[in-house]
Amino acid sequence: MPILTKLGFTGTVAALLANPDRASGLEKARCDRVTLTFDGIEGDCHSGRTHPSDVRTITQYQRGIEVANTRQVSILSEEELAEIATTMDLDELLPEWFGANLVTRGIPQLSFLPPSTRLMFSSGATLIVDMENAPCRFVAEVIEKHRPGKGAEFVAAAQHKRGVVAWVEKPGDIATGDEIVLHVPPQRIYAGAS
Amino acid sequence: MPILTKLGFTGTVAALLANPDRASGLEKARCDRVTLTFDGIEGDCHSGRTHPSDVRTITQYQRGIEVANTRQVSILSEEELAEIATTMDLDELLPEWFGANLVTRGIPQLSFLPPSTRLMFSSGATLIVDMENAPCRFVAEVIEKHRPGKGAEFVAAAQHKRGVVAWVEKPGDIATGDEIVLHVPPQRIYAGAS
User: ipTM of the assembly?
Assistant: First the structure.
């Protein structure tokens, strides 16, 4: 009766980042381990059971409406980061600049992971993917600060490589080097959308 | 920057059901209006911020582990119910027998709605689809009680017509007759799953 299917490969946690203070800016600092509660990463400014809606959901809600927080954890892939850097002709792109919380290694096309995919970490802690993230101008501004003249290239270069946002299904710790097991829902294209 | 796309059609709330007492059995009673909090339908036994994992997620968790409740609201479509009834050669199949909370009209192939689809109701209350529901033997037992000799046909007849489960993104009321606006995430098949 389970609906989810376990994938035949696993990923690895390449990096973890957190930032307790959103007012200090978008950038986060590396850490070796984070603790997930049902509200997100303990002590991170993205955490919270709910959050105010913003421009990302402007077709649904006016700004500032209290909605469930499905963006508790922002996830990037090392491979997609490298691809964006190559496209932009940059030596590197650091996950700190993206405000990301977690960087994966070994998950192909992370940004295309199906919504509702479960990411299970070594401790049993589990995240639910809400959906693909969108490249935004705030990251472009940070890149511009670190690599002057390059910020304007970011949004186009990062299309479909900006990772996914997720929220906590099961609390627990995540550590750098953890294995990531993936369970995905049935895949099909909904005909009613066309 | 929004990632979700509003669909070109809307559905309607055909029926609402709730049951405060799971111990009284799977069946629920009709009501004209329900109130959603962030925990689900107020006063319904499916509601809760978390719930114990069960056989549906046995490939991920042992039974009884506390996980986020993505099954707060169980949704069926009137059209898929009629198709199951036809396949089983039954005069009717009542949503009460399924333990459903909400019956839609006018959403084609409801059970195939993409995970992370947002269902917005007239009041602004919004549900997030977690995924397709699976036909289970508990419903088969209820059908057997009401239509003796027919229970055993249910699981096969209801494949991919058992609706979806969802949870609350934005609280508010839902009333019978409400319009349902749908916003879906980008659709694609994840190549990494094959």
Answer: 0.94
